[in-house]
Design a protein that fits this description.
heterodimer; A: alpha+beta; Heat Shock Protein 90; B: alpha/beta; Dna Topoisomerase Vi A Subunit, Chain: A, domain 2; three-stranded antiparallel β-sheet
Chain lengths: 662, 399
């Protein structure tokens, strides 16, 4: 067999290149050389999110803004970030100049080349601390992309203090060496007006891109960033639009400003040591080689978190060693025993002060500001651990308002406050949303798909190390622990949402009930007057009062599960819930989610039956007027147990009757 | 106001013609009707008073109306009288019930309308009553009634809850049904010879109470009631009533109350037997049942309408083979028909009637229904010249 094959091969080669000699090990060796990271990523830029012009532009903005936010927070400054995008029409349709400026602490002159010119250079990779950036690839890759597509170098201006001059450095990357070359360098005078705060960094990259609005756009990214970072003020100057394509300064675009919703920096995340349960054998061996400790006990105590002398001793004993064993004497076999021992020993979960969640309250504010829904519920899970790394899931649901009612829900995913906009289906959070049974919360949900309704779901994962599926940081890897936490967080929000949705349906029903009664009372009073000859007005007034108290009673007696809704509403007291106060002009009936229809019917009956039994326990609280499904009853009044009759919205009773009396 | 003017104009008109004093008769009728309606007004006022009283009660009341239920479950078959009677079950119509509020309002509205009519001594048709009470509810775009059928049902409710007949409420239905035959009657003072009605016949009015329709000379020996107008025309053209000395009536399908009342009076006052010629299908059977025992819906009027001795002449299921009819007359029974037939067979007044059980079974076994017109396939006048005389002479009918 093989002989034939070889013969065929020989025949085929014959007429062609007789001269071509087979490579030898020597000749091959001359071709073999190290590949610089820059070269690798320059070739594989799609791995970093620079696959197409549109995405490349977004990725560049994203990397720069993430860095800016990280820098500001680390420097203890409330971020004020400005993103400017300029369409350079004269040098080609797809040319943009992107400038991102922050008010962070700035970068010292000697680090500028490294940070902006070298891939895999940064402060964040080697530590376990929650931050947006992780690898030290992003901003340099953006610069590299710009250089490759336009040939224009990157310009960085940075100022570290009011008293110090700002440095302007123009950098060009040398991909083969993964190093930057300084093209030019200027020192700005100290009283430069560029940085009003006296410090900050401005990065200008010229790159090929495509600016479009809509999903996964720069606009959306900034909007979402503002939701997850309500402490940041973000200004976006979009490219000038306008008819005059030739005329570059046709109509200067108006900047979009995302104002701060909170004036407080999130608490700074602490850096932590690795947790013993989170490491692998190779890592352990490496750590053993590099440690400064000399004895095993000290090694465990110093290089890991949550390991005290007692635990260290236990681990060593389990591995057949002692805490006095010299680290140098630990060979591969011992390391393996140690590794196994670590897995068997009970160790406290890693500390969670290393996590800086957005926080329920702040997330609530961010959502309120960004989406303007009728209802928001947020929940913050207690920290969990995956592979020895602490993480924390926060979720939020926003419902109603201007959100489109008949579309699938939208899922906004965040990891360490950074919005994730691509590869939704591959993300653990998306899967968690689909897994959640939203039908239980009164929403429609096709099998294996997102729920349908005026709903936005927000999931945030905060961790010292977010497991992304790729370097472009687009999707969170699907760890069971993470997905479970996500689901629990969603369920918590969902329960509150369900209560709200059902209540809204009930309110709507009550409103309808009341309006039915009120509609006919006038006619009834008039007919009574015609029949009995006695004045109808007192009858009208009495019946109207009755109609109001009848529907009020039904308002507050029972909830859908037949439980009493107390005067103090649990949703109202919940810090993780926001319910928009309704105003007169949004009285338009809200469409209930369609799917719940069938179930609803059943429930109505149950409620009715029960109401008959437990009935007249005193009307509590006023509710919105006729026809209004307003979920904003006067709660204060309710709590006080007062009976409030909201007269404002009702037509004046005598008027209605007399206008029409014949 | 308008009323007075019209009367004045009529006066002038009749005055110039110098004809019979018609205005006096109209006024007389008004007076008569007004005089007879005291009880009705009293009842309507009573109903209104109760609603007002409950509404004004200091604890806040839930006004309601008690309405006897008009369903099969509340219908009782009186075996000795052989008629349907209404049971005692009532349903409460509450204002503060979303599903009943509108009907409650409509009931009061129509009650007020009926009171006005009674006081003025005038009558209105069902449709007129609907228009009289139809208006847009103040402050809404909704009308008091969506269509006439709504107001018709409410009027029936009022009849039963007030214990007043439709006539007493001064409301009548559209006239339907025709009569011809060896009888003279007096309708609202006009003498009508039913032997001289041409091809159209005498239109039976909706109200056939003795104060409206009085019987005069009658030579007829029986009444033949046929299902619809087309068959009736055939009989009339063949002067069947003359040859057989009878009265010929027709009810355009399910006979309206006027026709049933008239048949009832002919039967009871003039002692004329009633024979029915109806289709061989569940609807024909039910028409017979209504004539004989009364209807479920109007069970409360049975004693004024039911004719327990009415006979069912045909069409019979057996006629297909008996008269060797062609296949073309078959109309297939659909699922609805079959279900209805079984329902009818289960009615208490049919359940114990062996002949009827056999008849319904025979129809179901045939698997088709037949209309009276199917006899026309034999000959144009087969039904009048052969079929009915055969049935009558051989006394072959169902009871």
């Amino acid at each position: 067999m093989s002989a034939t094959l070889e013969m065929d091969g020989a025949r085929a080669r014959k007429p062609g290149t007789k001269t071509r000699s087979r490579a030898t090990a020597e000749s091959m060796a001359s071709q073999q050389r190290e590949i610089s990271v820059s070269e690798f990523f320059a070739k594989n830029r799609h791995l970093l999110g620079f696959d197409n012009p549109r995405k490349a532009l977004l990725t560049a903005v994203k990397e720069a803004v993430d860095n800016a936010l990280d820098a500001c927070e680390e420097g203890g400054v409330l971020p004020d970030i400005r993103v400017e995008l300029e369409h350079l029409r004269e040098s080609g349709e797809g040319r943009y100049r992107l400038a991102i400026q922050d008010n962070g602490p700035g970068i010292v002159r000697r680090q500028i080349e490294n940070i902006f010119g070298k891939l895999l250079y940064g402060s964040k990779f080697h530590r376990l601390k929650m931050s947006r950036g992780q690898q030290g690839i992003g901003i340099s890759a953006a610069g590299m992309y710009g250089l490759m597509t336009t040939g224009k170098p990157v310009m960085i201006i940075s100022k570290t203090a009011r008293s110090k001059p700002a440095h302007e450095v123009v950098l060009k990357m040398d991909t083969s060496k993964n190093k930057a070359e300084v093209v030019s360098e200027t020192e700005h005078p100290e009283d430069d007006a560029l940085f009003p705060d006296g410090h900050g960094t401005r990065v200008v990259i010229e790159l090929e891109g495509k600016y479009m609005k809509g999903r996964a756009s720069v606009d959306e990214y900034l909007e979402l960033t503002a939701i997850a970072n309500p402490h940041a003020r973000i200004t976006f100057v979009p490219p000038a639009t306008g008819a005059g394509a030739e005329n570059a300064d046709a109509s200067p675009a108006t900047p979009i400003v995302f104002e701060r919703a909170v004036d407080e920096l999130p608490p700074e995340a602490q850096e932590i040591q690795p947790h013993p349960h989170g490491i692998e054998l190779g890592t352990l061996i490496q750590m053993l080689e590099r440690t400064e400790s000399t004895q095993l006990g000290a090694f465990f105590k110093n290089d890991f978190c949550r390991v005290g002398p007692k635990v260290a001793k236990e681990i060593c004993a389990e591995a057949g060693l002692t805490d006095r064993t010299w680290v140098k004497q630990v060979g591969h076999a011992e390391a393996e025993r140690l590794y196994k021992a670590v897995q068997g020993v009970k160790i406290m979960a890693p500390p969670t002060d290393c996590l800086s969640p957005i926080g329920a309250k702040v997330l609530l504010k961010g959502l309120e500001k960004g989406l303007k829904p009728d209802f928001i519920a947020v929940s913050s899970r207690p920290p969990g651990v995956y592979r020895g790394r602490p993480f924390l899931i926060e979720a939020g649901v926003a419902f109603g308002g201007d959100l489109p009612a008949d579309e699938s829900a939208r899922v906004h995913r965040f990891a360490n406050r950074v919005p994730l906009q691509y590869q939704q289906a591959a993300c653990a959070s998306f899967k968690a949303v689909i897994e959640t049974d939203w039908k239980r919360y009164g929403l429609q949900q096709p099998r294996g798909a997102l729920p349908v309704g005026p709903l936005v779901v927000v999931i945030h994962m905060a961790s010292v190390w977010v497991p992304f599926t790729s370097e472009s940081k687009e999707a969170i890897a699907d760890y069971d622990e993470i997905r479970k936490e996500m689901r629990l967080a969603l369920m918590e929000c969902g329960r509150k949402l369900g209560t709200y949705v059902r209540r809204r349906q009930r309110m709507k029903r009550e409103g309808e009930r009341r309006s039915v009664f009120e509609r006919y009372i006038g006619e009834i009073a008039k007919s009574c007057e015609r029949i009995t000859g006695k004045p109808g007005q007192p009858v009208y007034d009495a019946l109207l009062r009755m109609a109001q108290s009848k529907t009020e009673e039904a308002d507050a007696v029972l909830d859908e599960e037949g439980k009493r809704i107390g005067r103090a509403d649990p949703l109202e007291r919940d810090e993780g819930v926001y319910i928009r106060e309704r105003t007169d002009d949004d009285d338009a009936p809200v469409e209930a989610p369609k799917g719940a229809g069938v179930k609803k019917g059943k429930r109505v009956k149950v409620v009715k039956k029960k109401r008959v039994k437990t009935g007249s326990s005193g009307g509590a609280g006023g509710s919105s007027g006729a026809g209004g499904a307003g979920p904003a009853p006067k709660r204060d009044a309710k709590r006080a147990g007062a009976r409030v009759v909201n007269k404002k919205k009702r037509p004046d009773s005598p008027g209605l009757f007399q206008n029409d009396a014949d | 106001m308008a009323k007075k003017k019209r009367i004045v104009r009529k006066k002038a008109a009749s005055g110039t013609k110098g004809g019979p004093p018609t205005r006096d008769r109209a006024a007389d009728a008004v007076r008569a009707r007004r005089a007879g309606s005291g009880k009705t007004i009293e009842r309507i006022v009573g109903m209104g008073e109760r609603v007002v009283e409950v509404s004004l009660s200091p604890r806040g009341g839930d006004p309601s109306l008690e309405i006897p239920t008009r369903t099969l479950s509340n219908t009782r078959y009186n075996k000795s009288k052989r008629t349907l009677e209404m049971g005692k079950a009532t349903q409460t119509r509450n204002l503060f019930n979303v599903n009943q509020a509108k009907k409650f309002m409509q009931s009061l509205l129509l009650a007020a309308g009926c009171k006005d009519l009674a006081e003025e001594g005038k009558t209105l048709s069902l449709r007129g009553m609907y228009y009289r009470s139809l208006h847009t509810i103040a402050g809404t775009k909704e009308k008091t009634f969506a269509d006439q059928s709504e107001s018709d049902t409410i009027l029936e409710d009022l009849e039963v809850s007030l214990g007043a007949l439709r006539e007493e409420l001064h409301v009548f239905a559209k006239k339907r049904g025709t009569m011809v035959g060896n009888i003279t009657i007096e309708d609202s003072g006009d003498e009508i010879d039913c032997r001289r009605m041409g091809s159209g016949g005498y239109a039976i009015p909706s109200i056939c109470e003795p104060d409206v329709v009085k019987f005069g000379k009658c030579d007829a020996k029986f009444v033949l009631h046929v299902e619809k107008d087309t068959v009736w025309s055939r009989f009339n053209e063949d002067r069947f009533w003359e040859k057989h000395n009878c009265i010929l009536t027709e009810g355009s399908g399910q006979p309206p109350r006027g026709v049933r009342r008239l048949l009832h009076r002919l039967h009871h006052e003039l002692k004329l037997p009633v024979y029915c010629l109806l289709d061989c299908d569940p609807w024909g059977h039910y028409i017979y049942s209504v004539i004989k025992q009364g209807s479920i819906n109007l069970a409360y009027e049975s004693q004024r309408m039911a004719i327990p001795d009415a006979k069912f002449l045909g069409i019979r299921a057996i006629d297909y083979s008996r008269y060797d009819l062609s296949d073309d007359v078959q109309i297939e029974l659909n699922d609805k028909d079959t279900a209805r037939a079984k329902q009818i067979a289960a009615y208490p007044w049919f359940r114990d009637n062996r002949a009827w059980q056999r008849e319904i079974k025979a129809m179901l076994d045939n698997g088709f229904k037949m209309e009276v017109e199917s006899l026309i396939t034999k000959d144009i006048s087969y039904v009048t010249e052969v079929y009915v005389p055969d049935r009558l002479s051989s006394k072959d009918w169902l009871d």
